[in-house]
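Quick question: what would this complex look like in 3D?
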Amino acid sequence: MSLSLYDTFSREVRSLQPLDGETLRFYCCGPTVYGPAHIGNFRTFVMQDVFRRVVEASGSATRHVRNITDVDDKTIRQSQEENRALSEFTSEWTARFHKDCDALGILHPHVEPSAVEHLPEQIDLISQLIGKGHAYRTDDGSVYFDVNSFPAYGKLSRLAEREITTGEIDREQSDEYDRASAADFALWKAARPEDGPNHWQSPWGQGRPGWHIECSAMAMKHLGESFDLHSGGVDLVFPHHENEIAQSEAATGKTFAHHWLHIAHLTVEGRKMSKSLGNLYTLEDLAERGHTPMELRYVLISGSYRQPLNFTFDSLAAAKKSLTRLGNWQHRLGGDTEIHSPGKGDFGPFAPVLEALLNDLNTPEAIGRLHSIGRKVMAMANAEELSPAETKAASEGLSLVLRCLGLVLPNPENAPATNIDEPPASVNKLACERLEARQNRNWEAADQLRDQILEAGWTVLDNPDGFSLEPLETKTEITDHQS
RNA sequence: GGCGAGGUAGCCAAGUGGUAAGGCCGGGCUCUGCAAAAGCUCUAUCGCGGGUUCGAUUCCCGCCCUCGCCUCCA
């Protein structure tokens, strides 16, 4: 069974099968590494990860390329401001990105090309475009793509149906880069003083590549001139992906990507994320509030990728509870807890979950089915109504589902892992006394001791082996502002 | 203004031409000395007004509201 997936280009849900019959080749626009990625960025990367996992579960191999944008306006400006070498600056943020991705259980792409390491490929592509009359050099040594030379321009974003705001070019841009038509976009940008040492030799003089060209060059290098699917956030539909199509197809005459996957944006508490609103959260910000990356992952896949998703701290708390519950199930059924890709397998009683995922990556439906099927299966398991074979099937099915979703669940046996603080000896002593009182069935004394422990700022929880102590929730509410 | 998406229970969020998945919260119950945890269970007629239909939340029209993109933001 293959995946049906909405295609931005044709605007319909289409069955997705590898062009070469074997390996589904796809390209994801990666991060610009000039700072920490925020949870909105991660929605895209997490959904792309689920996409890959589902394709692999459906039986296809994949070849996943995701770039690192390490040479552009933002990386150059920021590194210059910090007085640091571009490569040092970007490799630091690249490392941070990798760390975050790992924490979120995002599989590593098979190839992760860096823009600055693919300058020859980009220059070559630009040369081809000039040669074929699709691009021109300006007096300052920049090169632009001539949009008028490519009649199909705008077909992805249906630009023809829009009112193009020509003439409304940013003043600063038009002063510095002298393009012929407002719609034309830079393939190569001539060096500017403020770029510092960040310019490279080209047939058109010192400069650096434009933003869009890197993806065309790297995608074609690592996936071929024509490949299965291209993906990114919705904001990339125009102009980034539109421009990629124009550059690539003008150069090769072939269809660039056969399917376009775009992930809708994340809003935060009902509002667009922005620096001025102070709601651009990073994984670090969430960690400071006591939330784990997996909780975020769960939230990010709890809505349809085609719809804007509203992130709230309540949903993060809900995710924690759900994960705990799923973790209990997995523990009781005894499945494995690896993060790796699912591959093809028998989903057993959880087959309807895979079905939901194959239906345009319907992750909310899948999660709903996971819960309702899981509840039934666990009820039977608890009533000891499952044969060993059925238990095994359920266990394997659950593991496969979790791997499709990329969820790594908390193990109830190491449950209080969040509690790093050791209780002071005095509190511990009170708790021991309370245990003794309980063993003597002296409930009054036990309750009194619990009150004392509470006053000391700790909660005592009874369990079969004795007790555990947890610090009282210091409710740092969400009222504090981001700086 | 152009293009696009959407308004479903306190919150998040699916879905269907035949009277609405799931999660969280809340209520009730079971278990437990009490708690906690866990388990069970209850809770919506789908923005407003028309229309098509035997029947619409699901299709069409109008209105109100929200949101995204419109040149380098995932």
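Answer marked as accepted. Residues 163-177, 415-419, 474-483 of chain A have pLDDT under 50 and may be disordered.
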